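Tokens as discussed.
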């Protein structure tokens, strides 16, 4: 094998758009799902020859809300990936889910198709804060989703959480963490809120006194590290914690500058010294795939010096850190 490769598949559909989200995602576009499925399959088949000799050791369905896209479509995509590429039997295969679009039967079907990791968007346990950011699930649905995931015999579960939400206190965040840990996920991603321009949350709360200040966010972060440590979760990256052995292989690929290939609008790829990303426009993506037009929005060749500098920046995000031998190999390659 010429090396390992990660695969990212972007599913841009959502039931509703969260107020903080600046990822490329669309609500109310269900009528385009079938056409999008055909485009993705065509795209994967067209790119498959470039992956010859590569062993795929991670597949990640992100979004958007892949669980809202439907397990039948996800299973079909997995089947295509297995037929077109060489996928390791030990590959980590992750699907992002929202609690309102999880049930044990669909989880069991995904598990049978090879999915072995779920990333569940909990965000907060506080109902008022959920409404504030336009999340349409309740914490009860989170608990039910976790029960369904476990019933389907999926043994690698990650919960996504956000701290620094409007009006959120340190006590609020401590309760959210406690309720998350009670669910015993193998992995937790805890992100400090960042107001992204062109989002409803930015328009509503930019410079608002309701947002926790930098010192309060820092206190929340330090509390997170200590509380999770006491509960058996090891921090391995700035925002990521896991029971030892359950670190996200796919996300580590980004931080450790390993090759990955993306599919779908806005998806990014980095293979060797080439980095590129696709247009953030579903209509243009669909017409581009159908008409063999270019769908690449950004393309750059990375010099060894640039790659070595990025190695330092990304390595400092992780507990693995940086090593002279790794730096030399990149810089001299």
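Sequence:
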């Amino acid at each position: 094998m010429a090396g390992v490769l990660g695969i990212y598949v972007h599913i841009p559909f959502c039931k509703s758009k969260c107020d903080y989200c600046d990822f490329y995602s669309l609500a109310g576009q269900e009528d385009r799902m079938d056409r999008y499925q055909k485009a993705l399959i065509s795209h994967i088949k067209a790119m498959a020859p470039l992956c010859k000799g590569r062993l795929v050791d991670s597949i990640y369905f992100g979004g958007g809300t892949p669980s809202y896209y439907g397990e039948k479509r996800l299973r079909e995509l997995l089947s295509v990936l297995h037929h077109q590429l060489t996928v390791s039997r030990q590959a980590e295969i992750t699907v992002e889910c929202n609690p309102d679009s999880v049930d044990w039967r669909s989880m069991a079907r995904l598990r049978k198709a090879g999915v072995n990791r779920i990333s569940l968007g909990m965000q907060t346990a506080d109902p008022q804060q959920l409404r504030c950011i336009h999340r349409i699930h309740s914490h009860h649905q989170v608990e039910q989703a976790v029960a369904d995931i476990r019933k389907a015999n999926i043994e690698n579960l990650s919960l996504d959480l956000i701290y620094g939400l409007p009006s959120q206190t340190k006590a609020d965040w401590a309760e959210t963490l406690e309720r998350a840990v009670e669910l015993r996920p193998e992995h937790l991603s805890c992100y400090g809120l960042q107001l992204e321009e062109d989002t409803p949350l930015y328009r509503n709360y930019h410079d608002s006194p309701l947002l926790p200040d930098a010192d309060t966010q820092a206190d929340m972060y330090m509390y997170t590290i200590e509380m999770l440590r006491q509960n058996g979760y090891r921090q391995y990256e700035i925002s990521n914690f896991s029971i030892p052995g359950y670190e996200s292989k796919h996300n580590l690929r980004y931080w450790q500058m390993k090759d990955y290939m993306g599919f779908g609008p806005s998806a990014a790829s980095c293979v060797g010294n080439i980095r590129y990303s696709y247009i953030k426009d579903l209509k243009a993506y669909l017409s581009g795939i159908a008409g063999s037009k270019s769908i690449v929005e950004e393309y750059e060749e990375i010099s060894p010096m640039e790659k070595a500098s990025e190695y330092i920046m990304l390595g400092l995000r992780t507990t693995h850190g940086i090593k002279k031998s790794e730096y030399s190999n990149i810089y001299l390659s």
